Amino acid sequence: MISIQLAEKLNKIIAIESGGSSGVRDYALLSSALHRPFQTFNNESLYATAPEKAAAIMESIIINHPFVDGNKRMGYAFMRLILAEEGEDIDTNEDAIYDFVIAVSEGSIRYEGILQWINKNLKK
């Protein structure tokens, strides 16, 4: 799981590298987003696979908007980080990534669509 401390460090690094401000706007929303992929019900994971966890965290970070700036970048970065923890990654071009992230931020792609996009674009 990504800790709040790691999330803050990554937010600072990404802000330095890509521009914008760093900082947490709402710690409760950040905590909620970071914990969502690891939720259980009746001792069963609600998001069992790495792509499911990645889709959940991406949607939550982008929708919850816990950071001062860079929530789309952070959502995408955390999605990739969760995939990387399981030895997986995304393989597509920058334009497709941009269009996808914008669609998620506009609400036209939600969890199921994010999951489909991830599965379609996983490195084989």
Descriptive report:
The structure is a single chain. With 124 residues, this protein is mainly alpha-helical. The chain has helices at 4-18, 27-35, 50-64, 71-85, 94-106, 111-121, and strands spanning 40-41, 44-45. The chain has a two-stranded antiparallel sheet. Strand 1 (40-41) and strand 2 (44-45) form a beta hairpin. Helix 2 runs antiparallel to helix 3 (50-64), helix 3 runs antiparallel to helix 4 (71-85) and helix 3 (50-64) crosses helix 6. The mean pLDDT is 97.
Low-pLDDT runs = none
Shape category: globular
Strand order of the largest sheet: 1-2
Which whole number gives the mean pLDDT?
Answer: 97
Q: Output the structural class.
A: mainly alpha
User: What is the CATH H-level superfamily?
Assistant: Fic/DOC protein, Fido domain
Number of structural domains? 1
Order of helices and strands: HHEEHHHH
Largest sheet: 2 strands, antiparallel
Q: How much strand content do the residues show?
A: under 5%
> In whole angstroms, how far apart are the ends?
24 Å
Give me the CATH fold name: Four Helix Bundle (Hemerythrin (Met), subunit A)
Number of strands: 2
| Share of helix, binned | 55-70%
Evaluate the radius of gyration.
14 Å
